[in-house]
Design a protein that fits this description.
six-stranded mixed sheet, alpha+beta, globular, 129 residues, Beta Polymerase, domain 2
């Protein structure tokens, strides 16, 4: 594979990942999540392209948001690589390769402050997409 082909495939994959991440943000919004943020992690970490952060008001809501995102992505052919924190219900992180989804309760969101940790990451205005 030549460099131009590899760059084209990488760009197409990132565009598809962004589209899925925006879809996840809208799903979180439909489930009444607050403070929904998408961070563009390309160029910052090679591990994934986009990070979705949102806050749920209760364990039940956090589970509903995480479950809805997971079932939708799986229905679109995406495979979840891992999930952490589901049982405790204070912070659920789901890894889909190019996308990582964090659903926090308010205290965990403030404690981990991932927006501050990744302050160099550009924010995606998902509400316009």
């Amino acid at each position: 594979m030549n460099l131009a082909t590899a760059q084209h495939e990488q760009t197409a994959r990132a565009a598809a990942a962004l589209e899925l991440t925006v879809k996840c943000a809208h799903l979180a919004e439909e489930n009444k999540a607050r403070d929904i943020v998408i961070l563009d992690m390309r160029g910052i970490t090679p591990q994934y392209d986009f990070l979705l952060l949102c806050t749920g008001a209760s364990r039940r809501q956090i589970h509903t948001i995480a479950d809805d995102i997971d079932s939708t992505l799986q229905g679109l052919g995406e495979k979840r690589d891992s999930i952490e924190g589901y049982e405790a219900g204070k912070w659920v992180v789901q890894d889909y390769g190019d996308i990582v989804v964090h659903v926090f309760n308010e205290d965990a969101r403030a404690y981990y402050a991932l927006e501050d940790l990744w302050a160099d990451a550009a924010r995606i205005d998902w509400t316009r997409q």
